[in-house]
Amino acid sequence: MGTVVALDSLLAAQTLWHAGRASATALGEPTGHAALDALLPQGGWPRHALTELLLPADGVGELALLLPTLARLSEAGATVAVVAPPYVPYAPAWQAAGVALEQLEIVQATPRDALWAFEQCLRSGACAAVLGWPLHADAQALRRLQVAADSGRCLGFALRDRRHAANPSPAALRLEAVRDMHGGSAWQVRKCRGGPAPARAFALATP
Fold this sequence. Notes:
The chain contains six helices and eight strands, in the order H-H-E-H-E-H-E-H-E-H-E-E-E-E. The chain has helices spanning 7-12, 34-39, 62-75, 91-96, 111-123, 139-151, and strands spanning 49-55, 80-83, 104-107, 129-132, 155-161, 173-179, 185-192, 202-203. Strands 3-2-4-5-1-6-7-8 form an eight-stranded mixed β-sheet, with helices on both faces. 36% of the residues are buried. The model is unreliable at 1-26 (pLDDT under 50). This is CDP-6-deoxy-delta-3,4-glucoseen reductase.
């Protein structure tokens, strides 16, 4: 008969999963927004996972939300891939936000090939973060993206129309762009790994 090990010692050593308690290896990747990190159960973006941003339209603050993370990763020498963006990224603005442009890869793809390219970049293991705009991804396609992000140990960000909010998603984190009481941009957590979704929205600070 094997040695009996006390449950508390297993928990303390982080070798046993405990409901409602995130292990040290499951802590999130800092978002660059302290108030958002404080809201999320893992303290940041879920690592090796897909995050879904649900948007009422393009340009509602999604890049302002992501640029601090992309800047930190690229400045550390990691590759950030942007797959089939709907608009050409404005390099001076990305550079002003701290993104090392030499670490930024823009992947051009047709709408037909964009989902495949997104998945391949996530799975490659060559990227620290990948942004994509999957227009017609169903639950099965999103699950492939989630698995690819896990396999490639990558942060995946899927920017999608908020009409998809009513559909179930395998993404580890879902944020929806909403308006706060002052008419500014805010983000409501619709789903998150590691705990219940917080009721309070995160409002982006305006410059």
